[in-house]
Design a protein that fits this description.
Strand content of chain A: under 5%
Low-confidence stretches of chain B: none
CATH architecture of the largest domain in chain B: Orthogonal Bundle
Number of strands of chain B: 7
Number of strands of chain A: 0
CATH topology of chain A: 3 helical TM bundles of succinate and fumarate reductases
Largest interface: A-B, 11 and 15 residues
Structural class of chain B: alpha+beta
Oligomer: heterodimer
CATH class of chain A: Mainly Alpha
Radius of gyration of chain A: 17 Å
Number of domains of chain A: 1
Shape of chain B: elongated
Largest sheet of chain B: 5 strands, mixed
CATH superfamily of the largest domain in chain B: Alpha-helical ferredoxin
Number of helices of chain B: 10
Order of helices and strands of chain B: EEHEEHEEEHHHHHHHH
Radius of gyration of chain B: 21 Å
Number of domains of chain B: 2
Chain lengths: 116, 252
């Protein structure tokens, strides 16, 4: 099935906007920790984030939005770099595989960290 | 007041030359002398072998486009005094294959323009009585500026996306697509959107805006492309209501 470019770009814009908002929330959480920013980056505090379901969900959403947005951006750049049916098909599937791989690996990390 | 300027002309014949070179000519320019005037003077009196394309000499035909001092311009519309330089360098339009010297091949450019179906498509056209479509002035306003395009190719030469993506239709073609899409007499909206909603279509524009900067007719292709994108995203679709044929009775 051929997906229209407008649908892909709509996802690209929405994930870009969502990533900005979610990363802003993530940074704000670092800044509003009572012990201070440095303390928020210590091992115990980082692991504690993953044990909070809501926060783990935010991290998962950041992972998905950044991966989808980033790999689609890479696809667009590579399509401009060179043209040709074989190249374009290869780029498309490599980018899909890359995004799925990153999301799968990141999700695994989030799940493992929540079980520590 | 006369002014002496040095004109540097790009010379290259792909059939014979291994590389390009610049030939230089001294020309006396008046306040009203255009770059085309100077080139035609050189061609008539100094070197008649220079290849360039021109016709109307009044920015109507769009034939004499070339890169003058680094910017795509119409030679007939560019006065030497306005360039404010004693050295004027004329090069062929970028993003176009060179035929010879300043003459470039517009085949791909026109093919892309043609692929946009630059004509009204509407099955309701009255071929029997010749009745016309009713169109309000505000509906004309939506596409009027885009219809001033003379297909000179300056926007295409200035476009950074065309430089890297040969399948990208370019600002001229996309602006013309918007011109016909938003025309209330046209009813082929889905067909038109299908043409540009492609991986090398309207979404590849970087919005550098150089196309609009160089247009000699004041057309804003970058705006047309953004409006086309917005239309694809569902913004402004209410703006277009397909016009109806003029009825036998006079309009109210």
């Amino acid at each position: 099935m051929m997906v229209r470019e407008s649908s892909i770009m709509r996802i690209h814009y929405y994930t870009g906007l969502a990533a900005i908002i979610l990363v802003a929330i993530h940074i704000l959480f670092r800044l509003t920790v009572p012990e201070g920013y440095s303390a928020s980056l210590e091992y115990e505090n980082v692991i504690a984030n993953y044990k909070n379901i809501s926060y783990a969900l935010v991290l998962e959403l950041i992972l998905i939005t950044v991966a989808v947005h980033g790999f689609n951006g890479l696809r667009v750049i590579l399509l401009e770099l060179r043209q040709g049916d074989v190249w374009e098909s290869t780029v498309k599937w490599l980018c899909i595989a890359g995004a799925v791989g990153i999301i799968a690996y990141g999700t695994r990390t989030i799940i493992l960290a929540s079980m520590v | 007041m006369m002014k002496s300027v040095r004109i540097r002309v790009f010379r290259y014949n792909p059939a014979h030359d291994a590389s390009a070179r610049y030939d230089e000519f001294e020309v006396e320019a008046e306040r009203w002398t255009t770059v085309l005037d100077a080139l035609l003077y050189i061609k008539a009196h100094k070197d008649h072998s220079i290849a360039l394309r021109y016709s109307c000499r009044m920015a109507s035909c769009g034939s004499c486009g070339m890169v003058i001092n680094g910017i795509p311009r119409l030679a007939c519309y560019t006065k030497i005094y306005e360039l404010d330089s004693d050295v004027i360098t004329c090069k062929p339009l970028t993003n176009f294959p060179i035929i010879r010297d300043l003459a470039t091949d517009f085949s791909a450019f026109f093919a892309k323009h043609k692929s946009m179906k630059p004509y009204i498509i509407n099955d309701a056209v009255d071929r029997v009585d010749g009745r016309e479509f009713l169109q309000k002035p505000e509906e004309v306003e939506k596409y009027l500026q885009f219809s001033y395009c003379i297909k000179c190719g300056l926007c295409y030469a200035a476009c950074p996306t065309v430089a890297t993506d040969k399948r990208f239709p370019g600002p001229q073609a996309l602006a013309q697509m918007y011109r016909y899409l938003i025309d209330s007499r046209d009813s082929a909206t889905d067909e038109r959107l299908g043409i540009v909603d492609d991986r090398h279509g309207v979404w590849r524009c970087h919005f550098a805006g150089s196309c609009s900067m160089v247009c000699p007719k004041g057309v804003d292709p970058a705006l047309g492309i953004q409006l086309l994108r917005a239309y694809l995203l569902g913004i402004g679709r209410d703006n277009k209501i397909v016009a109806e044929l003029y009825s036998k009775e006079p309009p109210k």
